[in-house]
Amino acid sequence: MTTFDSDWLTLREAYDHAARNTKVLERVGLWAQAYDRLQVVDLGAGTGSTLRAVAPVLGSGQSWRLIEHDPSLIEAGEARLADTACTWRYERLNLRDDLEAAIDDAQIVTASALVDLVSAEWLEELAALVDRRNCALYVALSYDGRMRWRPGDPFDVEIKSLFDRHQQNDKGIGSPALGPGAARTLEAHFGDAGVIGRSDWRLRPIDRPIQTALLRGHASAASEIAADRSREIEDWRIRRQLWIDTGRSMALVGHRDFLKLPG
Ligand SMILES: C[S@@+](CC[C@H](N)C(=O)[O-])C[C@H]1O[C@@H](n2cnc3c(N)ncnc32)[C@H](O)[C@@H]1O
User: Fold this and answer.
1) Range of the domain at 194
2) How far is the CA of 250 from the centre of ligand 1 (A)?
3) Mean pLDDT, the chain, whole residue set
4) 128 to each of 99, 131, 189, how far by Cα in Å?
5) CB 166 within 8 A of CB 222
6) Is 220 within the bounds of a domain?
7) What is the 99 CA–ligand 1 centroid distance (Å)?
8) Residue 139: beta bridge partners?
9) For residue 47, how far is its CA from the centre of ligand 1 (angstroms)?
10) What atom in ligand 1 is closest to the CA of residue 46?
11) pTM here?
C-alpha cells in the first residue's frame, strides 16, 4: 500500500485549494441548491481537504462520509475536522475492494488527487456505479501529465519520464495506475457529458517548502525506477535545490477538475 504523509497533505492543501477550478466548483454549488439535504461521499479523503474546500459551496443540509483506509490519516482528519459545522464521519474502507459499499448512499461522489493512483478498470467501475446510482461525480486535481520546472535543466525531460513511469506503478487500487493518463481517461469515460477545467499548481520562487518536497519526491521516484542512474539523479536534485534555495525556481504541475452531473 502507498502511504501518504499527513505533513505532505497539509503542505499541499493551500496549493490545492488555490488551484481548484472555480468555474467547476461553482457548478457544484449551483447544482446543490436544488437539495435540502445532500449526502456527499469523499473517496480517499486523507485529512479532509476536499470537505474544507467544497463544504462552503454546499447548502446547510450537507452530510459527508469520508472514505479512507489509513488509520493515521483518519485520526489526523478527525482532529482537524472537530470544529467543522457540517455533519461528517470517517469510514475505514479499502477502495480497491469496497467501492460499491463506499458510494452506497451518495448523491455526490467527490475525490481529490486520487485518480492518478487508480487503474483504468477501477475508474470504469466507478463510472458504472455513478451512472447506475445516477449521482453526481466531482473529481478534482487529477494529474494530467504536464510538469515543468523553470529554469530548465537538460535532465528535466529524463526525470519527468522516469517520474511518469513510477506514477504507473501499482498504488494498491489496481494496476497499472493511470498516473499521467488520469485526467484524460476520466474524461474519455464520460465523453462530452462533463464539465472540465484546469487546476494547475503554479509554484513561485517563494513557495520553497513545497518545491523542495516535490523535488525530493521526483528524485526519489526516478531513482526507484532507474537505480543505476542514482548519481545523475542526485546531481540533478542538487542543481535544482540550489535554484530553489536562491529564489530562482518555479514549477508547474498540470491538473484537471471534472464534474459529471446526474442525467
Ligand atoms: C494523494 S492523497 C489525497 C488525499 C485527499 N483527497 C486530499 O486531497 O488531500 C490520496 C488518498 O487516498 C487514500 N487511499 C489510497 N489508497 C486507498 C485505498 N485503497 N482505500 C482508501 N483510501 C486510499 C490515501 O490514504 C490518501 O489519503
Assistant:
1) 6-146+173-203+255-260
2) 27
3) 96
4) 11, 5, 9
5) yes
6) no
7) 13
8) 111, 258
9) 9
10) 27
11) 0.97
**pLDDT at residue 38, as a whole number:** 97
Task: Identify the CA nearest to 32 among candidates 13, 6, 11, 56.
Answer: 56
pLDDT at 189: 86
Among the atoms of ligand 1, which is closest to the Cα of residue 171? 16
Please check whether residue 120 lies inside any domain of the structure. yes
The CA distance from 220 to 198, in Å, is: 27
Helix (H, G, I), strand (E, B) or coil at 175: coil
At how many degrees (to 10) do helices 156-167 and 208-225 cross?
70
- The single-letter code of the amino acid at 15 is Y
Cα 45 to chain centroid, rounded: 10
Residue 119 · residue 177 · CB < 8 Å:
yes
Task: Assign residue 87 the CATH number of its domain.
Answer: 3.40.50.150
Cell 523542495 sits on residue? 212
At residue 263, the pLDDT reads: 79
The reported pLDDT for the residue numbered 60 is 86
Length of the chain: 263
How many Å apart are CA 239 and CA 235, to the nearest integer? 6
For residue 256, what is the enclosing H or E element? strand 250-260
Within a domain: 231: no
Q: Which of 10, 25, 47, 68 to mutate to test the pocket of ligand 1 (most atoms within 8 A of CB)?
A: 68
**Over the stretch 80-123, which tens digit does the pLDDT of each residue have?**
999 999 999 999 999 999 999 999 999 999 999 999 999 999 99
Matching residue, cell 525506477: 225
List, for the chain, all residue ranges whose pLDDT scores fall below the cut of 70.
1
Q: In this structure, is residue 99 part of a structural domain?
A: yes
Which of 109, 108, 185, 110 is CA-nearest to residue 143?
185
Ligand 1 atom at minimum distance from 140 CA: 8
Number of domains in the chain: 1
